[in-house]
Specification:
4 domains, N-methyltransferase activity, single chain, three-stranded antiparallel sheet, Rossmann fold, DNA binding, alpha+beta, eight-stranded mixed sheet
Length: 508
């Protein structure tokens, strides 16, 4: 049976209602290990779900929260059982994970999981279980990984059922506010202040939330050579904190990664914190990757893996990459009031120009370069004025005409620049009224003329090569049709230059 179809039907059935989600969780927990017999039993006696659930939990020494529902909807239990009848125990895990995974955090969790580099020998502490995303990723190919975690909420129950269904027998989720005080961990992975509500959002300026208190508490459980990876919301990272300032000055903050926040106020920051100082150059590695996420609505988001993998490769290296990664000195950070948002130090924009083509521009460098404003070297007219000699589409909102001033700029050079990736990227930032502020590099007129002459020579060669290739391709196509015995029925023609070849029937 198609697993996606089952998933969609179950999702419609439970309708995201927490109690019904618990029905599904309880059914999966009870039937795991004995699917066929238990499914038939529950279909006939759905009222037995809670006693069976509690009995199995007691036998396994699993302590769930008190949120397990006392009142069971018999009809829902029977319908869930019917949907699960034709799928395997392995598919159970995928169904459960798909329903409870926090997809809105997809880029952050994807990167956190990858850079954590969890090994089977590592002792890992997870604070805030986040519906099992991190645990699922860690255990998917390593069910013997030792993980401790705690969060006395429904997410704890979901995580406990997930690891059980994955047969992760060496994993321990401590159902208490704190794990054993004498235990130390190699790494800690945490989601900080994930829960939000409208009141919290509107009062955020008055709130005294200090995420570094949780970071400090979790890092106190880490061994001297260990580290922590923390996911956080942007505005929480940027708040005043004496602990944050202390961590900066002691060199404990290794890396800050800023990912996409396109779909609202969600977790988009990753901090890598070391137990002891490891960087000698008194700097923090700042990575700004705003195009790490693709989203098609407010609930579902998809990781832009090309950008996310670029982050993963760059995070623990020393090299800097323009518009993407900088090693920012403590002195510069101090001048910015100890702000830790990479976007304040790494000025980068990635703007789509055409299908499958985007351009990343470091606008901070452009602002420092010697440039003219377009209005200084050309006259700008409204659309259809007939006065300009360069037609310019502005931000998909209209067209203006530009007349180059020959004292400053060669007309063809200016036209080629305006249609270059840098010119088109800038055009996305202006409208017809403000396009005069577009920045043009100051290049001596003689150099403009030389570069255009070279450009035209190369362009002519490229056009000749393309024309020869088109002619050769047409000959090969015609030979193929001749060999098929149909070559005399039609001919392959170019209706107009630049258009794919068209088959024209010849019926005479």
């Amino acid at each position: 049976m198609n697993l996606k179809l089952v998933y969609r039907r179950i999702l419609r059935l439970i309708n995201r209602n927490e109690i019904i989600v618990y029905h599904l969780a309880m059914v999966l927990f009870v039937i795991h290990g004995n699917r066929s017999d238990m499914l038939k039993y529950l279909e006939g006696k759905p009222e037995e779900l809670v006693p069976l659930f509690n009995s199995k939990a007691k036998g396994l020494d699993f302590e769930f929260t008190d949120k397990v529902p006392k009142i069971i909807d018999m009809d829902k239990v029977q319908k869930i059982c019917l949907e699960l009848e034709n799928i395997s125990a392995i598919d159970d895990v995928e169904i459960w994970y798909s329903i409870n995974a926090m997809r809105r955090y997809a880029p952050t969790l994807y990167v956190m999981s990858a850079i954590s580099d969890i090994k089977e020998s590592d002792q890992v502490l997870i604070d805030n279980l986040d519906c099992g995303n991190l645990i699922h990723d860690f255990l998917e190919n390593n069910s013997n990984q030792k993980i401790d975690g705690f969060e006395k909420t429904s997410f704890y129950d979901f995580g406990l059922i997930l690891i059980y269904c994955m047969n992760a027998t060496n994993t321990n989720l401590a159902h208490s506010e704190y794990v054993a005080s004498d235990k130390e961990y190699d790494k800690t992975i945490s989601i900080i202040n994930r829960k939000r509500n409208r009141l919290w959002r509107f009062n955020k300026k008055k709130n005294s939330i200090d995420i570094f208190k949780q970071i400090d508490a979790d890092m106190s459980r880490v061994k001297s050579e260990g580290y922590g990876i923390f996911g956080a919301i942007e505005w929480l990272l940027d708040r005043d904190s004496s602990i944050k300032n202390d961590y900066i000055q002691r060199g404990l903050i290794d890396t800050v990664i800023q990912l996409s926040d396109d779909i609202g106020e969600v977790m988009s920051i990753i901090l890598v914190v070391r137990k002891s100082k490891v960087r000698d150059d008194r700097s923090i590695r700042m990575i700004n990757a705003p195009d790490s996420e693709l989203s098609d609505n407010m609930v579902r988001s998809v990781v832009n893996k090309q950008t996310a993998n670029r982050v993963i490769k760059a995070w623990n290296k020393k090299n800097e990459y323009a518009g993407f990664v900088r090693n920012v000195s403590f002195e510069e950070i101090e001048k910015n009031n100890n702000a830790l948002l990479p976007s304040k130090y790494v000025h980068s924009e990635s703007i789509p120009l055409k299908e499958n083509l985007s351009v990343r521009v470091d606008f901070s460098k452009l602002e420092k370069a010697d440039t003219y404003k377009l209005s200084n070297i050309a006259k700008i007219y409204s659309e259809d004025s007939g006065k300009g000699d360069i037609e310019l589409e502005v931000n998909d909102e209209g067209t203006v005409e530009v007349e180059a001033d020959s004292k400053y700029v060669n007309k063809q050079w200016l036209e080629e620049f305006l249609h270059s990736p840098l010119g088109e990227t800038q055009l996305t930032k202006f409208n017809a009224q403000t396009v005069g502020n577009l920045q043009i590099p100051i290049v001596p007129l003689e150099e403009q003329m030389e570069s255009i002459q070279k450009f035209n020579l190369v362009k002519t060669k490229v056009e000749n090569v393309n024309a020869n290739l088109d002619e050769t391709a047409a000959e090969v196509e015609q030979q193929l049709y001749d060999s098929m015995g149909i070559g005399d029925v039609f001919e392959v023609m170019d209706k107009e230059q630049g258009v794919k070849k068209t088959i024209v029937l010849n019926l005479d």
